[in-house]
Amino acid sequence: MKCILTTDGSEASLKAVTWAVQHLQFDAETVLFLIYVFPLPRDVETYSHLLSLPKDASDERVVQISQSVMERTRKVLGDLDAQVHEVTLVGNPAQNIVEFAIAQTADLVVTGTHGHSPGVELCLGSVSNAVAHRALCPVLIVR
């Protein structure tokens, strides 16, 4: 099985990782991707002259945040009998997660949700909702 666990280090994402560890069966054949996507504004060109935005995952700011996120996630993940790969991407989280899942022919994506009200989600957007609607594989949203 190829499984993607999305993480941003938040309580919601760590809750999803905890759920996956407790309820899914991982073995030595399982390929598990921990994915953190450093979010960029939707219209990067609008902000690029005002801010120095990272261009890719090698940017020192992204590396520093990603290391912290992955460290917190690894603590929750514990010592699994699976092939675990940490992946850091930069850009639109939902788009990057879906594209990565397709490229890896993932069997499952597990993601958390912050549980915002519909009005807040309308303004902020919902990564988990967008992934669930666009992914080609099953998506498990842990609330």
Brief digest:
The chain is α/β, with parallel strands linked by helices.
Average of pLDDT: 90
Biggest sheet details: 5 strands, parallel
**Runs with pLDDT <50, length 5+?**
120-124
The number of domains: 1
The CATH architecture name reads 3-Layer(aba) Sandwich
Within CATH, the superfamily carries the name: HUPs
What coarse outline follows from CA principal-axis ratios? globular
Through-space gap between termini: 23 Å
Tell me the helix content.
Answer: 40-55%
> DSSP helix count?
6
User: In what order do the strands lie side by side in the largest sheet?
Assistant: 3-2-1-4-5
Written overview of the protein:
The chain is of the alpha/beta class and 143 residues long. The protein has a single domain (2-142), classed as HUPs (Rossmann fold, 3-Layer(aba) Sandwich). Helices cover 43% and strands 22% of the residues. It has helices spanning 11-23, 44-48, 60-77, 93-103, 118-124, 127-134, and strands spanning 2-6, 31-39, 83-91, 108-112, 139-142. Strands 3-2-1-4-5 form a five-stranded parallel beta sheet, sandwiched between helices. Helix 1 links the parallel strand 1 and strand 2 (31-39). The radius of gyration is 15 Å and the shape is globular.
Give the helices and strands, then pairings.
Blueprint lengths: L1 E5 L4 H13 L7 E9 L4 H5 L11 H18 L5 E9 L1 H11 L4 E5 L5 H7 L2 H8 L4 E4 L1
Parallel strand pairs: 1-2, 1-4, 2-3, 4-5
Observed structural traits:
143 residues, five-stranded parallel β-sheet, Rossmann fold, globular, single chain, alpha/beta, 5 strands, 6 helices
